[in-house]
Amino acid sequence: MYKIGRMKITIKDQTCDNPIDLVEDLLSMLYKNGQILINYIVEKHNCFYIATVTTTDDDSIEAKYFNVYIRNILEKVEFTYEIISDDGFASDSCQCQEHSFYVLGTYYGDDSSPVLCGDCGKEIPLIKLPYIFSEDEHFSILSYQRMYNSVVDVWMSSLSDRFTKRQLTYYDSQLTKRGLEICHELESKVGKPVYFLLPVGEFEINKTAENIVNCPKCGGELNVLESTECVDKVCHSCRLGYIDQHMFDFSKK
Ligand SMILES: [Zn+2]
Ligand SMILES: [Zn+2]
Pfam family of this protein, just one (predicted)? Predict the structure, then answer.
């Protein structure tokens, strides 16, 4: 369950000209490391700052999750924190010890992890995942999520229906290709299949995920998964997944 936390941040380096930059750097590093969400707010007090943050669990801000960037900046700035309450808007995150497969299900919104547990269907906080692409943070996944949401924003505003619908629904669009690259890389780290959740739309006019039978990419028959919440059909070889009730219905627009 996501939590609301309060961090008291103090600048160690009193010669620093722009202490707020250090505060911003620290919070940005914690965000990119999957320890807090991007919705933080900061109060300025006489000798310290208070940041109210959303974090993924009681222990998510602990030092055991720090990366090299956070350890370095803590030479100039320090913080203590307390967890205030549960986040009223948050849904539960995955508590499974093992995951038989994963789904990159980039939904609209930046208040959750885009990686879902194939068994329970709930999101897996990024701090529970390995870094990918030789990074020491989760920047690739988070920047993909932002890029995806930007395309959805334009589609929702009806500013560019053809371009955005194609990006969001075509298995070979630049957006999907990048998603599949992330799935492939994550799969190499976790050793379990990682599927990319694709809404039905580009070539399946008047079809929904309920009535597509074949993979749009390779033409092979999709496998129906009975016992999972976040994906209903998958193509094992293309690592594409479909859900019957996707939050975006592209079949009619
Ligand atoms: Zn789970
Ligand atoms: Zn396929």
Answer: DUF2310
Q: What is the whole-number distance in angstroms between the Cα of residue 206 and the centre of ligand 2?
A: 20
- And the tokens for 155? 């589609």
Cβ(4)–Cβ(53) below 8 Å: yes
Convert the pLDDT of each residue in 166-214 to its tens digit.
Answer: 898 889 999 999 999 999 999 999 999 999 998 876 555 556 666 788 8
Encoded amino acid at 125, one letter: P
Q: What is the mean pLDDT of residues 151-174?
A: 87
Residue 217 lies in domain: 102-242
pLDDT digit string, tens, across residues 44-87: 998 899 999 999 888 999 999 999 999 999 999 999 999 999 98
Claim to verify: residue 119 and residue 222 sit in the same structural domain: yes
Q: What are phi and psi of 84, to 5 degrees?
A: -90, -45
Dig out the tokens for 16 from the structure. Answer: 């620093």
16 plus 127 within the same structural domain: no
* 109 and 81 co-located in one domain: no
Query: 235 C-alpha to center of ligand 2: Å?
Result: 5
118 C-alpha to ligand 1 centroid (Å): 7
Could you tell me the distance, in angstroms and rounded to a whole number, from the CA of residue 21 to the centre of ligand 2? 47
Residues 107 and 73 in one domain: no
CA 203 to centroid of ligand 1, rounded, Å: 32
Q: Sheet with 77-86: list strands edge to edge.
A: 41-44, 49-55, 3-11, 77-86
Is residue 173 domain-shared with residue 217, that is, in the same domain? yes
